[in-house]
């Protein structure tokens, strides 16, 4: 297959620019918030609460968001999501105003940050399903795997640059003006998005009762072994492998590398994932996908353990880099499974379940890591998470031989015949 097939569609290129800008802004914002909150509290549990504040609304609204996405026009819905994110970024910019700490109590600032993160969870519950659904309306089915790879690669590239710039930006211009940069990127995304025209609504059941719609979506996900297996495996791995939530502690108190080192540590996994994803455009991962996914999750757990035990900055960076590289394999395979095996009229609901399983497990993983660090100590918490990830991969390989034998080549061949 042509490794640049999806890039030959102008609208898809515009979509990638929008996605890059939004992921860059969101990942940079999360890092700046983590740094500010830990600087205010010096409490590892406060980092976990950031994740919890986002995951509560994201999970509670996920299924309803999926229903709404399947019922609405996707371009304008994405516009609404970006506007919502811009408002939240503006609020965080104002909260970080120099001198505010002199007139407001630290707790007031902290709770206000948590409140805006909470609102961001509602925005995120719509953002993921909308983006997932929009891709399928821009490119033909036969190049879904290639489009999914480029989309994921763009996500990872933004995830590299966002955290890296956040670390250096905090050092160079401070938290306040870093928030201003984030707000600017959200406006940039909004401007480019209007170059994509409105898209047709492919759901034949417009006006379907919401609870019937939700039941159909859940029934489809739980009834599809490939989708359910991939989501479950990744959810548990991410839940217990959420070491990145504790990076401010490692940067400030264990490795003693400051905000610049924090930015490098935070970006290392995304650098590894980006290299994997760009490589996968020439060397696809759809053959023997089940085995590759299981090995990737196992290797991810090993990398997390090495990182947790390391007291050397360069070894920590390498471990995080390799964790991102194998996580990139997992992400590509999961996204390819979802794109190939999800019908057009259910993309919003399936993507919402995906966000509940995988996306929200990032925040739950952050809370679990913060709580475990509070109770067990930071290093013990990270090593425990890595061990649980390895156990998850091994258990899945033993109890689910059908998933271990999963191969996506047949699905790709069928879509090529349809087009």
TrEMBL record:
Give Gene Ontology CC terms.
Answer: plasma membrane
User: Span of the secretion signal?
Assistant: none
This protein's record includes keyword Cell cycle:
no
Q: Which UniProt keywords apply?
A: Cell membrane, Membrane, Transmembrane, Transmembrane helix, Transport
Q: Which Gene3D superfamilies match?
A: MFS general substrate transporter like domains (1.20.1250.20)
Quote the InterPro entries the UniProt record gives.
MFS, MFS_trans_sf
Q: Where is this protein found?
A: Cell membrane
GO molecular-function term, one example from the UniProt record: transmembrane transporter activity
- Membrane-spanning parts: 12-33, 45-65, 77-97, 109-138, 150-170, 176-196, 227-251, 263-281, 293-322, 375-399
- Look up the domain of life of the source: Bacteria
- Which membrane topology describes this protein? Multi-pass membrane protein
Q: What is the protein named? A: MFS transporter
Organism per entry: Flagellimonas lutimaris
User: Lineage, please?
Assistant: Bacteria, Pseudomonadati, Bacteroidota, Flavobacteriia, Flavobacteriales
């Amino acid at each position: 297959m042509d490794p640049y097939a999806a890039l030959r569609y102008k609208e898809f290129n515009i979509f990638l620019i929008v996605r890059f800008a939004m992921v860059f802004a969101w990942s940079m914002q999360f890092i700046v918030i983590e740094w500010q909150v830990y600087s205010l509290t010096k409490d590892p549990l406060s980092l976990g609460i950031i994740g919890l504040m986002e995951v509560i609304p994201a999970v509670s609204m996920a299924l309803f968001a999926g229903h709404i996405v399947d019922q609405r026009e996707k371009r304008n819905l994405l516009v609404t999501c970006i506007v919502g994110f811009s408002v939240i970024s503006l609020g965080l910019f104002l909260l970080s105003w120099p001198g505010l700490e002199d007139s407001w109590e630290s707790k007031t600032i902290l709770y206000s940050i948590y409140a805006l993160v909470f609102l961001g969870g509602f925005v995120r519950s719509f953002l993921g399903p909308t983006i997932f659904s929009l891709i399928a309306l821009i490119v033909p089915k036969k190049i879904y795997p290639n489009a999914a790879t480029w989309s994921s690669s763009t996500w990872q590239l933004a995830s590299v640059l966002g955290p890296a710039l956040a670390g250096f930006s905090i050092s160079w211009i401070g938290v306040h003006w870093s928030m201003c940069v984030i707000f600017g990127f959200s406006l940039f995304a909004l401007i480019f998005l209007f170059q994509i025209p409105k898209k047709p609504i492919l759901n034949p059941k417009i006006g379907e009762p919401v609870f019937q719609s939700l039941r159909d979506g859940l029934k489809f996900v739980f009834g599809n072994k490939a989708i359910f297996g991939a989501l479950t495996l990744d959810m548990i791995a991410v839940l217990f492998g959420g070491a990145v939530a504790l990076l401010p502690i490692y940067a400030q108190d264990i490795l003693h590398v400051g905000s610049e080192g924090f930015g490098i540590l935070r970006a290392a996994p995304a650098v590894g994932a980006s290299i994997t994803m760009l490589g996968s455009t020439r060397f696809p991962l759809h053959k023997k996908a089940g085995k590759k996914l299981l090995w990737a999750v196992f290797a991810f757990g090993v990398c997390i353990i090495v990182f947790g035990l390391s007291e050397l900055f360069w070894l920590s960076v390498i471990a995080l880099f390799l964790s991102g590289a194998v996580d990139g394999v997992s992400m590509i395979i999961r996204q390819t499974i979802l794109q190939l095996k999800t019908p057009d009229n259910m993309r919003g609901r399936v993507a919402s379940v995906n966000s509940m399983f995988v996306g929200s497990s990032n925040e739950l993983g952050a809370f679990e890591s913060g709580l475990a660090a509070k109770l067990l100590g930071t290093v013990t918490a990270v090593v425990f998470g890595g061990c649980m990830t390895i156990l998850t991969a091994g258990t899945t390989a033993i109890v689910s031989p059908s998933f271990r034998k999963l191969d996506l080549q047949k699905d790709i061949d069928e879509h090529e015949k349809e087009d």
